[in-house]
Amino acid sequence: MSDPTEILPADVGGFAKAARLLAQGALVAIPTETVYGLAGDARSDHAVAAIFAAKGRPQFNPLIVHVADLELAEQIAEVSPAARDLAQAFWPGPLTLVLPLRPDAGISELVSAGHDTVAIRLPAHPVARAILRAFGGPLAAPSANPSGKISPTTARHVLDGLSGKIAAVIDGGACAVGLESTIISLDPPRLLRPGGVPAEALAGALGATLPQGGNAQSPNAPGQLSSHYAPGAGVRLGAAARQPGEIFISFGPGPAGDLSLSPSGDLIEGAANLFSTLRAADALAQAQGLATIAFAPIPDHGLGAAINDRLRRAAAPRS
Ligand code: TXA
Ligand code: MG
């Protein structure tokens, strides 16, 4: 049997223990403002391989490197003036920049899965930042869920998916943003994944539109496999009301749901509640023997674009 996963408190003792485990090459799930990340030393082939193994993640899907400051980002990647402007505007925070990987970066080749770019993020969560500082190096961290399943926004969610497969989880409470970071590449700017920073805010900062999708230098985020965030039940989108045999999730005023993403129709609250609501709905569907979770329509602007992206993937045919 594997060792049990230790639950560490979000205090100096917990941070020191987490940093010690990470320095030994072990994996620790940490809270970020977006979702919980499964952290390992980004410089260690052993630790990075263990991340892929614990998640059951395909090796072609590269990982995001988390850093404590812009200086470390600049040691790992070539940060152009345009990239630095964005970093200064949105870091720390839920923005990931895909940048040219420096040949002398010292990052495990497994992190970038053979690409000549690297995805970098400077998280805002005080616990993530304290651990990055205590560890003193770059941490590779995908979302701390089994590959293809619903991302975790509490320590409990992490344990539900990865208990016994990782050394520890730091319990930092629920994640405030609730869905993953926005990923962009630059030269020219492209939106690779909608997320916690609305695309409108990035377009405003860039003074340019932000087209979706990859380009020749930077392929579309390879992890954007169509089926993802999959609950056990099926998912129906844009539902006007509950149909027989469904769990109904409302948004804003309108027909009452079994659950609501946000009773007032607030997109920030909806994003924060998304993954925990999807988990709760899945448990309800299972308890009641229902096959489908139906979602009311969500406006497609601001964080609504990221919510709808995750819901489309949750609804996609499973492979
Ligand atoms: O908010 C977040 O971004 C969370 C927290 C833990 O930081 N992390 C996260 O990681 O969502 P993950 O592994 O679940 O998603 C990372 C995405 C994948 O779709 C991957 O394909 C993409 O980032 N990615 C990583 N490196 C890339 C690169 N060099 N070029 C394009 N996409 C990349
Ligand atoms: Mg993920």
From TrEMBL:
Keywords from the named record: ATP-binding, Cytoplasm, Nucleotide-binding, Nucleotidyltransferase, Transferase, tRNA processing
GO molecular function, one term: tRNA binding
Reactions this protein catalyses: L-threonine + hydrogencarbonate + ATP = L-threonylcarbamoyladenylate + diphosphate + H2O
Protein residues bound to L-threonine: T34, H66, R121, A141, S181
Pfam families listed in its UniProt record: Sua5_C, Sua5_yciO_yrdC
Recorded coiled-coil stretches: none
GO annotation terms (biological process): regulation of translational fidelity; tRNA processing
EC number(s) reported in the record: 2.7.7.87
Binding annotation for ATP: R57, N61, T117, S143, S151, R193, Y229
Location in the cell: Cytoplasm
Enzyme class: transferase
Transmembrane segments: none
GO cellular component, one term: cytoplasm
Domain YrdC-like: from-to ranges: 12-197
Functional note: Required for the formation of a threonylcarbamoyl group on adenosine at position 37 (t(6)A37) in tRNAs that read codons beginning with adenine.
UniProt record similarity statement: Belongs to the SUA5 family.
Protein known as: Threonylcarbamoyl-AMP synthase
